[in-house]
Amino acid sequence: MNRFDECLPLILAHEGGYVDHVADPGGATNLGVTLGALSDWLGRPATKAEVKALTIATVAPIYEARYWRAAHCHELPAGVDYMVFDLAVNSGPGRAKKYLQRAVGVAEDGAIGPKTLAAVNQLAKARGGTTILNRISHYRENFYKTLPTFSTFGKGWLRRLNEVTAKALEMAR
């Protein structure tokens, strides 16, 4: 099975359906795709009605291109791929790639190439991905706590992070 096909339902379980929370800077969102992300994907301004009408079939290509492949999850070991994918969805592929690089001790330039992948594979082989996953989890928690909307959304973010970390550790075994 394609790892993307295994990980996407896990992401969508956390993303949920249509919301348009006044305190969420992303605005109207459905299945985790914001109005801005959909507009960018379509190459034109999208409407809230279009966001509301999104289905799993219509968002899957967005997730695969803009998060899974953009963060190089298809090149990562099981468990690490899911953690980085979830981080890319939640905080952007740029942050996901840099946190991965920080976790494996290479330059945080956001460019996933042979050096980063070699470091990932070496550390994952030595420790089964546990070190990488726990480090990224720690970086994410610290980042969330700095956000101005943490008092509104922080409890949910930390719950999601704990669930993703547990599942990623399970996948890495």
What fraction of the residues are assigned to beta strands by DSSP? under 5%
Name of the top-level CATH class? Mainly Alpha
CATH topology-level name: Chitosanase, subunit A, domain 1
Largest sheet: 2 strands, antiparallel
Question: For this structure, what is the CATH homologous superfamily?
Answer: Chitosanase, subunit A, domain 1
Gyration radius (Cα, Å) is 16 Å
Share in helix: 55-70%
Distance between the termini: 17 Å
| Multimeric state | single chain
Domain module tally:
1
Q: Tell me which CATH architecture applies here.
A: Up-down Bundle
Q: How is the secondary structure organized here?
A:
Blueprint: H1 3-15, E1 29-30, E2 33-34, H2 35-42, H3 48-52, H4 56-69, H5 80-91, H6 93-104, H7 114-127, H8 130-146, H9 150-172
Antiparallel strand pairs: 1-2
Helix pairs in contact: 1-5, 5-6, 5-8, 5-9, 6-8, 8-9
Written description of the protein model:
This protein is mainly α. It has a single domain (3-172), classed as Chitosanase, subunit A, domain 1. Helices cover 68% and strands 2% of the residues. The chain is built from 9 helices and 2 strands. It has helices at 3-15, 35-42, 48-52, 56-69, 80-91, 93-104, 114-127, 130-146, 150-172, and strands at residues 29-30, 33-34. It has a two-stranded antiparallel ribbon with strand order 1-2. A hairpin with a 2-residue loop joins strand 1 (29-30) and strand 2. Helix 1 packs across helix 5. It is globular, with a radius of gyration of 16 Å. The model has no long low-confidence stretch (mean pLDDT 95).
